[in-house]
Design brief:
By secondary structure, the protein is of the alpha+beta class. It has one domain. The protein has a 3-stranded antiparallel beta sheet with strand order 1-3-2. Helix 1 crosses helix 2 and helix 2 crosses helix 3. The longest helix is centred in the middle third of the chain and has 15 residues. The radius of gyration is 14 Å and the shape is elongated.
């Protein structure tokens, strides 16, 4: 079994730290059109896509990023690349209720 530790909040993945939670971040990205989307499903799908891109052993669970103990500085440096690798709007399109 791998011991894990908290690496930080979802904000490790983005420079936009205005939202208090990962879900608020997703809803905020949708802006005035958030009601057009299944935000719960979109949030889950977006989190899953980010987890696929995160370095091995690092996971976004809820609003927190976890990884191996002790904290690995090299992994911390790789975490933001996951954000850039995922196309939020492609995922959002699949959860658009108006389509």
């Amino acid at each position: 079994m791998t011991t894990t530790t908290k690496y930080g909040e979802y904000t490790l993945l983005t420079e936009d730290a205005t939202a208090q939670t990962f879900t608020e971040y997703v809803v905020g990205a949708l802006g005035d059109h958030s009601e057009d989307y299944d935000t719960a499903a979109l949030t889950d799908a977006y989190r899953a896509a980010l987890n696929e891109q995160l370095p091995t052993g690092v996971t976004l669970v809820g609003d927190e990023v976890f990884g191996p103990y002790p904290v690995d500085a090299a992994l911390c440096e790789q975490i933001p690349a996951a954000w850039d690798a995922v196309d939020f709007w492609a995922i959002a399109e699949k959860h658009d209720r108006t389509a």
